[in-house]
């Protein structure tokens, strides 16, 4: 059963066309020279209760604007949005009781106060009954050792401890939906894994619907079965993370083990001058000493590439692999696969 229902959602901003220099700044004061920026351009999605979905895309793709509309901060220009049967921007006061929001970059907790005081304030704000509060605080203690941090002012927490506290705090009032924005940003691998474990546990236990925005592909691979990729305000992929590859299925990695020394730059130049195509093969040495050549099969036949390579070197071993999902998503972020 879907809890988030978005249809043909659009959001445009009217932005002043700025002019350069001091004279330009003065002109801007009186200017009516505006342009329209389509931040979100016809996005539709339906998310079921309890799903954890990765919401990803390059910088400026429209993720924050979509989330702001989902949380009721912004009103759409057109289209419809319903979250847990609320129209967020219309029924904001009632609606916020049902959601939790975590921004990796800034804390929702009270900076100067001991951790426990923040949780007590949240208890009052969300009118959480004693039983729910005590049960959740017990659970958070089991998961992240919250008791040992109770008396520490938030500003003295390490970034990882602060993030763990922020995440469990978002779950304190048992919201139905949580928006997580970059929950592992700037953290080392061990604390990232701990945070992922806590998110997964709370999602499973509480059947909380989670929309996760992250630039860390491992977060997606570990936490999300489904991802929605947006670019330039529109959805370019919505489905099983394992199927992202099929979007760009024309790509393969040809892995080569050479039987003699070679010069990577020389090899690259030869390949690039021999195959004239729009998207040149990507050639790199991997850590295990093999050469990886990523080929767009729409432009170069695997057999042509192999035949050409055999004219250059004796090869010891050859493997053909699919492009890893991680690489594809990273390239989408960097705008490289369009
Ligand atoms: N208040 C605003 N006024 C004008 N333009 C805006 C405003 N908010 C966002 N935009 C523009 O809308 C587009 C989408 O921005 P948005 O912040 O939603 O992208 P994003 O995917 O969240 O990017 P990032 O990963 O960098 O946070 C961008 O071109 C941005 O400059």
UniProtKB/TrEMBL annotation:
Coiled coil residues, start to end = none
User: InterPro entries from the xrefs?
Assistant: AAA+_ATPase, ABC_transporter-like_ATP-bd, ABC_transporter_ATP-binding, P-loop_NTPase
Q: Name one Pfam family in it.
A: ABC_tran
Please verify whether the record's keywords include Kinase. Answer: no
Instruction: Tell me the keywords, alphabetical order.
Output: ATP-binding, Nucleotide-binding, Transport
Q: SMART domains, alphabetically?
A: AAA
Q: PROSITE patterns from the entry?
A: ABC_TRANSPORTER_2
- Residue ranges of domain ABC transporter in the record: 4-257
An example Gene Ontology molecular-function term: ATP binding
What is the official name of this protein in its record? ABC transporter related protein
| Lineage per the UniProt record | Bacteria, Bacillati, Bacillota, Clostridia, Eubacteriales
């Amino acid at each position: 059963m879907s809890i988030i229902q978005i249809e043909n959602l659009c959001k445009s901003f009217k932005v002043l066309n700025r002019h350069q220099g001091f004279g330009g700044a003065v002109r801007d004061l009186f200017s009516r020279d505006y342009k329209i920026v389509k931040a979100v351009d016809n996005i539709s999605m339906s998310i079921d209760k309890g799903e954890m979905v990765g919401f990803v895309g390059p910088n400026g793709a429209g993720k924050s604007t979509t989330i702001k509309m989902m949380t009721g901060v912004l009103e759409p220009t057109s289209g419809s949005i319903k979250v847990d049967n609320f129209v967020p921007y219309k029924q904001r006061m009632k609606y916020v009781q049902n959601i939790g929001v975590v921004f990796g970059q800034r804390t929702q907790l009270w900076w100067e106060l001991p951790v426990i005081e923040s949780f007590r304030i949240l208890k009052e704000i969300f009118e959480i009954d004693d039983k729910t509060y005590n049960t959740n605080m017990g659970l958070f203690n089991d998961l992240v050792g919250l008791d040992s941090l109770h008396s520490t002012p938030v500003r003295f927490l390490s970034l990882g401890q602060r993030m763990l506290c922020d995440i469990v705090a978002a779950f304190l009032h048992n919201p139905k939906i949580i928006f997580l924005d970059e929950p592992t940003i700037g953290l080392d691998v061990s604390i990232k894994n701990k945070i992922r474990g806590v998110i997964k546990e709370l999602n499973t236990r509480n059947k909380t619907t989670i929309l996760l925005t992250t630039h860390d592909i491992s977060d997606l691979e570990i936490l999300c079965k489904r991802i929605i990729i947006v670019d330039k305000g529109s959805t370019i992929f919505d489905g099983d993370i394992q199927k992202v590859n099929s979007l760009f299925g024309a790509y393969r990695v040809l892995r080569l083990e050479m039987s003699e020394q070679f010069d990577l730059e020389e090899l690259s130049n030869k390949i690039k001058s021999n195959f004239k195509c729009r998207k040149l093969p990507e050639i790199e040495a991997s850590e295990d000493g093999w050469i990886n050549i990523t080929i767009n099969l729409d432009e170069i036949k695997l057999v042509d590439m192999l035949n050409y390579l055999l004219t250059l070197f004796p090869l010891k071993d050859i493997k053909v692999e699919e492009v890893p999902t991680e690489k594809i998503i990273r390239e989408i972020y960097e705008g490289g696969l369009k």
